[in-house]
Amino acid sequence: MASPTSWTEENFSCPICLDVFSSPVSTPCGHNFCRTCITKFWDEQAQCKCPVCNELFHNRPDLKVNILVSEMAAQFKTSVRVKEQPCVESGEVPCDVCTGTQLKAVKSCLMCFTSYCQTHLEPHQRVAVLKKHQLVEPLDHLEERMCKKHDRLLELFCRTEQVCVCQFCTEGDHRSHPVVPLKEEYEVKMAQLGNIESEVPQMIQERKQKIKEIKDTIQLSKKDADREIADGLQALTALMRCIEKWQEDFNKTIQEKLKSTEKQAEDLIKELEQEIKDLTNRSSEVKQLSQTEDHLRFLQAFRSLKGPPPTRDWTTVEVRPPSYVGTWRRSLDQLEETLNMEIRKLCDDDDLKRVQQYEVDVTLDPDTAASSLLLSEDRKQVHYGGPGNKLPDNLKRFTSLNCILSRQSFSSGRFYFEVQVKDKSVWCLGVARESINRKANIALTPKNGCWRISFNKDVFVFHDDPVVRVPLRAELQKVGVFVDYEKGLLSFYDVEARVHIYSATGCTFSEPLYPFLYPIDFDGRISSLLIISPVNQTD
Description:
There is one protein chain. By secondary structure, this protein is α+β, with helices and mostly antiparallel strands. The strands form six sheets. It has a seven-stranded antiparallel β-sheet with strand order 11-12-23-14-19-20-21, covered by helices on one side. It has a six-stranded antiparallel β-sheet with strand order 13-22-15-16-17-18, with no helix packed on it. The chain has a three-stranded antiparallel β-sheet with strand order 6-5-7, with no helix packed on it. Helix 5 packs antiparallel against helix 7.
């Protein structure tokens, strides 16, 4: 006979309630029912009969509990409860009491140092003494919660040595140390962990931002590389055209020399051939006369014999091959000079195109303008308006020098802007640091926080200590200013001619920089309008 644990629920189910038997009884026909179910069923019927086989009982049977079925149903219920509990899986705490198949623990007892499944936990929920035990969520390795020295529960925390201790430890090695319950220290550490947890997303975000910056840099580098390749191809094409032109001119020169020599030779050959022809005719006449034996005729014919044809003394005549010595060298020197000019032009043009990519929108700040300066409504133009303007003083305004700064400042990266200086006999422009002294009449040099070039009729200089004279350029109309903050580089360009004017290297930029204009010369003479111009990269 199979054991109850191998049967199904149908073997122990009441035919009326369909649940596992509760106080099972047997009818005279041999069928089993819950006592409550069959009693209620017969109470509602006019006759007593079996709900299963419909056997009719004339007298209501005296029902008694079927002890065998009752015990088997009880065993089945127990086995079902055990089977309904989940078996332990990887990473879960097993029941320490289960034998054979271990079930998942639902609680751990800190007094018994044992983990229990739902079935084996039942005594702790029923027995009064066990109810007093401290139950917690399932914990693995409960032996690690015991003090190895005193075999007592680790329930305190020593803040001096940052270790968990038992009560006996506080009376020994940790007597003078501050100790607190584990829960109190847990709350402190959880608060610290919360701070760390709140910092981590920010750190992650910062690193994501750095990744984006790196990717943007790579993307920009790719664009720069593509532009460099295109510019290089354009420059090489231009140089190839110069070389092809040089090759064409060189070949033409050589061919012309050869052609001239060939023409001279052809003319001399024609002349020689004509003399040969004339001499051949005379030779024929002489030969014919020499064969005449008639004395009379000979003498008469001799008198009419023509004189010798005019001929050249060919002993000094020669055709000299054309000399090509030095032709290649002179032509190559000319090519080198042309290529150098083209390279300088291409480099300057390419350099200007490159820096123009960093164009920024610059507007002038009226709060920084000296009282003698007048601004346009769009804050793009400034000129000297003469003394007498009354403006509110502030920390930003220049009071001793007729200068003005932009609204925008730049403290990293690269930026570029252009200023129109056409038809202006005197002007000054560049960049200035934020802390430049705006109240004193100082020298506007890098030492004092200003990097600038100035033009005054026939003097063009970069103001350093000492000043650096810059070669004059005719009809300078627009000046481009480029700054690479991290490299400490400041460059000036002649935009119309698309050539480089001057670069200051090794500059120390440690503060925000502002575009700087000074529309009046040092003698107080009025200068023309200075205009912040939009960048036209197709120039």
